[in-house]
Design a protein that fits this description.
There is one protein chain. This protein is α+β, with helices and mostly antiparallel strands and about 475 residues long. The chain has a single domain, classed as Outer membrane efflux proteins (OEP). Helices cover about 65% and strands about 10% of the residues. Strand 5 and strand 6 form a beta hairpin. The longest helix is centred in the middle third of the chain and has 67 residues.
Length: about 475
């Protein structure tokens, strides 16, 4: 007799084990209203942000009273969506490594035969059977897939660092613009008072017949021009604050009442990279390392396509109960490489490898050019900043002497105000020179992608919102 009960038990156990190993689907809705609410609730004093600081080795007094570029950079790493995108892409690449390592499942087939010539109650007309198709990959195809997926995951991992550097670069620029706007506004406000007082003095001089109406008109024009520059500086300050909030991944309301520490902006110590430093930059930049990983993935992809010229082997064992007789079968099959030898995919993989190599060489050449241009620009800006500092210092000394001379009655109030106005213009020039120097320093750091602060932070890439 056929052991149908035994077959049922085996099938039931196999299905139960299969269902237990399956991953269940869990829906997760994306609600725009909730996302907007969560964004608007972001702040600089949240507990999650404090935990992130601690996870990255930073334990300042909380909440932070005055935010500098160093602390704001960690805020950008915590909140900015670009890093979440990069981490998600790395998670996809990591899942691809699991896919690449999976082996093909065997196929199960159930068959049955009916013998129409079988007669008699003791003769079973139906003959059930079971068969398998077990695929055996040849020539190391699975290893090439795993190697390709591993390199793609490494490239995605390095893109997290590239995204972090871009966040830092944009944040540095926004922070510098906010500093420039605040300083310009303060200088122009003082300048406005000096020019307004100068106009009042000249009005009295005109009434006394000491000057012409043209000279008074020129003073009033200077006052109005300064007023326009002050309005522009106030607007630039507002725009810079909005840009800073956007770069941090925060709503503008999160920066209300926040104090900023710009002490580091006035320091522009720098070292122009020498030949060794440039070579290190060209070999260690995250985008260059990612391009190398892409090339290695292309190599593995080409190896995989070459291996696919050789067919996989399929084993087909089977079992049948033929009228009470137990019969075993064993089959062997493979695809015959007659109509094609997988040449098309091989040529495509070769072309993609050449394209990846070209992209790497172009990226490396562009990086070298960026370093040279940024170094030259920084030297020039540093010289201009030094010259502007000297001019401003000289004018400060002149202003002090002029004040003393005015108090002794040796010069008039108008002459003193004219010197003060010159000092205000020199302070604007010095500020612009310092800002340009900082921008040039940022361009050099971007080209080299090397900063002591950035490299010394503890980055935990496998943690949520951690780098």
């Amino acid at each position: 007799m056929i052991h149908y009960d035994r077959i049922k038990i085996i099938l039931f156990l196999a299905i139960a084990l299969w269902l237990d190993a399956c991953i269940r689907y869990h829906p997760k809705e994306l609600l725009p209203e909730k996302a907007l609410t969560d964004f608007q609730l972001r702040s600089l004093d949240s507990q999650e942000l404090q935990d992130f600081f601690k996870a990255n080795g930073q334990t300042p007094a909380w909440p932070i009273a005055s935010w500098d570029l160093h602390s704001l950079t960690l805020v950008g790493f915590f909140y900015h969506p670009d890093l979440d995108v990069a981490r998600s892409q790395w998670a996809v690449a990591e899942a691809g490594r699991i896919t690449a390592g999976e082996r093909p499942n065997p196929d199960l087939g159930l068959t049955t035969e009916y013998n129409s010539s079988a007669k008699g109650a003791d003769v079973e007309a139906w003959s059930p059977g079971i068969s398998f198709d077990i695929a055996i990959e040849t020539v190391g195809k699975r290893g090439y897939r795993i190697s390709q997926a591993r390199q793609m995951s490494r490239s995605a991992y390095l893109n997290i660092r590239s995204a972090a550097w871009q966040v830092r670069s944009r944040l540095r620029q926004a922070f510098l613009e906010l500093y420039s706007g605040q300083q310009q506004r303060a200088i122009l406000s003082r300048q406005q008072q000096v020019l307004a007082e100068n106009a009042r003095v000249m009005e009295k001089q005109l009434a006394a017949g000491a000057i012409s109406a043209y000279e008074l008109a020129q003073a009033r024009i200077a006052l109005q021009n300064n007023r326009l520059e002050l309005i522009s500086a106030e607007n630039s300050q507002v725009q810079a604050r909005i840009k800073l909030a956007s770069t941090l991944g925060l709503p503008i309301s999160a920066l209300e009442g926040v104090n900023f520490d710009f002490a580091g902006v006035n320091r522009y110590d720098f070292n122009i990279p020498d030949g060794v430093a440039r070579q290190r930059a060209l070999l260690n930049r995250s985008d260059i390392l990612a391009a190398l990983a892409d090339y290695a993935a292309g190599q593995a992809a080409l190896q995989l396509e070459v291996a696919r010229q050789y067919p996989d082997i399929h084993l087909g064992p089977g079992y049948m109960l033929d009228q009470g007789d137990k019969k075993w079968t064993l089959g062997l099959s493979l695809s015959l490489p007659i109509l094609n030898m997988n040449h098309g995919p091989i040529y495509e993989a070769q072309a993609r490898r050449r394209e990846t190599a070209s992209r790497f060489l172009a990226l490396q050449a562009a990086a070298l050019s960026d370093i040279d241009m940024a170094a030259a620009g920084l030297r020039s800006c540093h010289e201009q900043a030094a010259a502007a500092d000297e001019i401003a210092k000289d004018l400060q000394k002149q202003t002090g002497r002029a004040q003393a001379m005015f108090e002794l009655g040796e010069i008039s109030k108008a002459e003193l105000l004219a010197i003060r106005a010159e000092l205000g213009a020199a302070e604007i020039s010095r500020l612009n020179a310092r800002v340009k120097t900082q921008e040039a320093l940022g361009a050099l750091e971007d080209a080299v992608q090397d900063s002591p602060e950035f490299n010394n932070w503890l980055f935990k890439i496998n943690e949520k919102r951690a780098l």
